[in-house]
Each structure stands twice: as C-alpha cells, then as structure tokens.
Amino acid sequence: MADVTTYQDGTPIGRAAGAQAASLPMFTVFENTYDSTVMNIASGDTVTEFIKIPAGSYVLGVQLTVQAVEATTTIDVGDAADPNGYVAAQAVAVAGRFAGAGAYLDNVGAMPTPTYYDADTWISFTVGGAAATVCKFRVAVLVANAG
User: Fold this and answer.
1) Is the model more confident about 129 or about 23?
2) Are the C-beta atoms of 98 and 126 separated by less than 8 Å?
3) Where are the domains of the chain?
4) Burial (CB count within 10 angstroms: exposed 0-12, middle 13-18, buried 19+), residue 1
5) Is domain 3-7+29-145 classified as CATH 2.60.120?
6) Which of helix, strand or coil describes residue 19?
7) What is the spatial distance between Cα 81 and Cα 27, in angstroms, rounded to a whole number?
8) For the chain, which has fewer Cβ within 10 Å, the N-terminal or C-terminal residue?
C-alpha cells in the first residue's frame, strides 16, 4: 500500500483551500478531480493529500461524482482518522453523483452531524477492488468555516 501525493510529473494532486473558506454563516464547496488515466493507482493505495480543509471548519457533506467509469474499482473518501468516514466503498462502475454515506455522515435519513476540524486536515481517498486505470471522479466537500 502506498501514499500518493503527486502525479508522475511531480504536480501535486491535492488542493489546499487555505484562507479561501468563507466564514460562518457562509458555506464553501471545495472540490478536486482525480483522473486515473493520468496516473494509475493500485488497489489499496491512498491519495493522502486530496482536498485540504482549513482549521476551524465543519464538513457538512461530501459528494462523489463519477465522470468516467471503471467496472470493479471502488473509492473510499475520508481523513487520517477514518479513511472511509465520508464515502465507503463506492463503486465507480456507473457514472453519476453519489452522496457520502460513510460513518461520519450515515445517520439513516437524519441530518448528518457535521465533522469539526480544529487543525488543517486533508481529505483523502483510497482505491479498492481493482486498480484505478481509466476512471475519473470528482469529490466535492461542503464546508462551513467557524475559525
């Protein structure tokens, strides 16, 4: 298992939100797209620095949008404490939008409890099933910054 932070040409995969987060009561959507045709990722590998959430922020929701499909690959989205806390084993075999349903957000139809980060935190993703070689997906994170 490997942690991946850059494409093969050295370009960082992650996007740092930093000070661009609006303060409460405003919301900000941070997003990043991963294209596995640019760089394949083996099953079990994690992109540890995908979307940076600034300190003092609440994550209110996560959405995975599959833009190019791959038959037997799954994606987990989370953080260092819970690698599938936002999206757990979402298949990318069908194009479309999928709401996060990991442990952080799964409240069985109820309003999810926001996840608070008191320090800068990276949202990561992990590939499961088969290696990601042709899929492309976007992760969007709804954030309210209280810091």
Assistant:
1) 129
2) no
3) 3-7+29-145
4) exposed
5) yes
6) helix
7) 24
8) N
